[in-house]
Each structure stands twice: as C-alpha cells, then as structure tokens.
Design a protein that fits this description.
Elements lengths: L2 E2 L2 E2 L10 H5 L7 E4 L6 E2 H6 L5 E5 L9 E3 L2 E3 L1 H9 L6 E6 L4 E6 L6 E5 L9 H9 L13 E3 L4
Parallel strand pairs: 5-11
Antiparallel strand pairs: 1-2, 3-4, 3-5, 6-7, 8-9, 9-10
Length: 156
C-alpha cells in the first residue's frame, strides 16, 4: 500500500487525500469516521491504529452561518469571525449573518447604520488568522466533503 505521510492509502483514489488536508486540522482534536467502527475516533487514533479507510468529520462551509458547538458554546461561526477580526472605530451593537461569507455589523455613528465583514470563498485570500480560526471550528473550506474525503457532521 502506498504511504502518504502518516496516512496509509488503500487505493489510488485515497491518494488524492493528502497530508496537507490532515495537517491543517491536527491541532484541533478532529474526529474521524472509521470503516468498521460505529463511533467516531480521534484523528490520531484513526491513522495510527487502523488501516481501515477513514474520513474526517467536518462542518460544511454552509455551517459558517448556522449554529454549531465550538469550545463548549453554541456559536454562529461567521459572527464569531466578525467579532474577532472586524476592525472599526465605532462600537458594533449587533451582528447579522447575511451568508456564509458576509456579516452585517450594525454600528453607532452618525454617517451609517451598518458596515460589512466579509471572508473570501477562496480560502487562500483570507488572512492567516482567519484561516486558522476556520480550521479550529472544524469547517470544511476545501470541499473535502464533496470529494468524499470527509463526512458532514450534520449527517451523523
């Protein structure tokens, strides 16, 4: 069997799933669905102890605007990103998710009622800090679910 980094590939289709996909999530205690196991396993166990096929368990990109559990709290990821990374000299009084990529930030000033915070659908155009935060929220920004290398957490 060909080996890609620490991941044992069982066929050529799995070789498309590269170490870069795994390494992005390594610091974040990602869980995996492992063939032959009914319960998810930590990613470290999935590729360390098992030669069965496994898939990462991730939130789809559409969950950026939906409520998810993160660090023991229920959040809306795009709003958390706006709270952390939106820069404004005015106080933001309210955040409203418009889409997966845009938040309306209502502000207190005399010129306008709101401003926008946006992230780019092309992940490489965002700041390093935003990308790391998206990874920590276990959001699939690389369409691994669509490529069948990950499982949508909402389907479990």
């Amino acid at each position: 069997m060909p080996v890609i980094g620490l991941f044992v590939a069982q066929n050529l289709d799995l070789m498309k799933f590269q170490l870069k996909h795994l390494s992005a999530y390594l610091p974040y205690e990602l869980m995996c669905k492992v063939e032959g196991y009914s319960k998810p396993l930590p990613m470290i166990s999935a590729y360390d102890d098992h030669q069965n096929e496994f898939k990462l368990i991730l939130h789809p990109i559409s969950d950026l605007k939906n409520k998810i559990e993160f660090e023991g709290k229920i959040i809306i990821p795009i709003i958390e990103l706006a709270k952390q990374f939106h820069k404004s000299e005015w106080i933001v009084t309210e955040y409203k998710a418009i889409s997966e990529y845009r938040v309306m930030c209502f502000v207190e000033n005399s010129k306008s009622r709101y401003m926008y915070f946006d992230i780019y659908p092309e992940i490489e155009k965002n700041s390093y800090e935003i990308v790391k935060k998206i990874q920590s929220m276990k959001i699939d920004y690389d369409d691994l679910i669509g490529k069948e290398n990950a499982v949508d957490i909402n389907s479990l």
